[in-house]
Structure formats: C-alpha cells, structure tokens
Amino acid sequence: MLGYDPDVIRIPxxxxxxxxxxxxxxxxxxxxxxxxxxxxxxxxxxxxxxFLSHTPVVMPTKVVHSPIPNALMLFTDGSGKNGKAAIxxxxxxxxxxxxFTSTQRAEVGALIxxxxxxxxxxxxxxxxSAYSVYLLQNLETALIKSTLEPTLCALFL
Length: 157
Description:
The protein is α/β, with parallel strands linked by helices. It is 34% helix and 20% strand.
C-alpha cells in the first residue's frame, strides 16, 4: 500500500508468544520473510490484555502436526458429486453417505467420521483436502460462531 516497508512493525504479542506463533503461520512467515525493519513486541494498554500477559493459560491440544509413531493411518476422502464421505484403513474400509452437497462438506464429513470412529486411540489422518487439513489443525482453538448454517454448525459442537 505504501510502496515501501515501514521502519517498525508493532506486534501485540510478547517476543516469546511471537516465536511460538511464527512456525505455525505460513502467512506470517511469508509476510515477514523479506522485512528488513525492526519488530517491536508490545501489548496495547488494555487492562484485560495486560492481565492475560501475566497469567499463564495452558491450552490442551490433541492435534499434533507430525505423524504419531505406530498410530493407525487413516485415509479420508469426500465427494460432493455423489454426496459420500469415506475413510479407509488397512485391512478394512468404511463408506458412508454424508448428506452434503459440496465437496468441502463431504471432506469434513469424512474427517468427522474418522474422529468419531476412532475417538479413543491415536490416529494419523491423511487427506487430499487442504480445507479439511487446515480446519482440523485449527479446530481446537477456533471460535465457532452460532451464525453458521445450523447443519454445518452442528458438526463442530
């Protein structure tokens, strides 16, 4: 927008928080890849943000970003054309009608089928859907808005 980089970018995260977030955000990595200026880490003067900066918050996670050794490997796929979602694993496979009319919804239906079917054991999920992979990686910390279409919202609750 300016035609040049600003001298300083102020990020509303502590340096430690920023270093934890950077490896998880490809967009942020790309945006800052050739930035030669100075990055400042400072929270705004908001009382709640100041309180949270001094209060440890632990977010438990079940999703990991690398394969779990010796865990069951599941392959998921969905098709909006025929309304089916499928999961496959050796030596069995499972196929169910998802009831969704778009490919993205069928792909999410396949993920949900996998998570419901194998809810008590570690699994590795392989999907050809970038949408589903992104959704699954961010699901634990996502804010689900009740303004979503009711059928779609019900999948996440």
